[in-house]
Amino acid sequence: MTGATGAVGRAIVEATQEAGAWVAGTFFSNTEEAQRMEAQGILMVKADLSDRMKARATTTQVLQAAGHLDALVYTAGSTRDHTLGKLTDEEWDEVFDLHVGGLMACTQEVLPSMQARRSGKIVAFGSLAGLTGRVGQTNYSAAKAATVGFIKALAREAGRFGVTANVICPGFIDSKMTQAAPPQAWERAKGESALGIISSVEVAASFAVWLVSDLCFGVTGQVFSLDSRIL
Asked: Distance (Å, rounded) from C-alpha 86 to C-alpha 8?
């Protein structure tokens, strides 16, 4: 579970642990939260997943501790929002390196053992921004679109080995990433919702748990939009 101390990641970890699974998670800077989670029996590893070498080393460390992994859930991410004219190369690279490079590196490390066991589930978190675009987020939207392409190609490659790969694309949800959004963004999201609501991290967590569970059989290469907006 990457990005385990983020709002979505933490909710998934807790839901997965409640379902009886052993869980390992990565974190980047939230040491206090990581320590709290570690006290709950979760293996927590500090990692900069935007560095592909470190991402691979971290994944190998978790694999060695676990023996094997049944699932990889990739939620690690960040935003560096600017309109395109103000976007720097560093802001573009930072978002792509974490969202796409880290996903690629972690998946490369877990895939051989999953294929050998003919069992495994890869779940990546995309965003509706990657499907519809979003003003001020050309880097983020492009990275999330790349995530969708990566997972669809992976599903075709790994399917013959019994490994599935899917993408969850939340819309505007109440999370750490959206807390900094201006009030008008929250009102707009509510206005665009067919239900007039803002979704929660718990919804994303419950869906992720279903995707990695034995209840989800024969589903791969799919993009799931978790939102109440009618696109």
From this structure: 29
CATH number at residue 26: 3.40.50.720
Please say if 140 is a catalytic residue.
yes
Residue 194 domain-assigned (yes or no):
yes
Number of domains in the chain: 1
Domain holding 146, by residue range, is 7-222
Task: Say if residues 82 and 136 touch (Cβ distance below 8 Å).
Answer: yes
Q: Which residue is associated with the tokens 């490994």?
A: 163
Residue 153 to residue 101: CA distance in whole angstroms: 15
Question: Which residue out of 140, 172, 207, 224 is catalytically annotated?
Answer: 140
Helix-, strand-, coil-residue percentages of the chain, each rounded to 5: 50, 15, 30
Where helices occur in the chain by DSSP H, the ranges are: 7-18, 31-38, 52-66, 89-96, 102-117, 129-132, 138-158, 176-179, 183-192, 201-212
For 67-85, the pLDDT digits (tens) are 999 999 999 988 888 999 9
Q: What is the pTM of this model?
A: 0.91
Tokens of 39: 């006290």
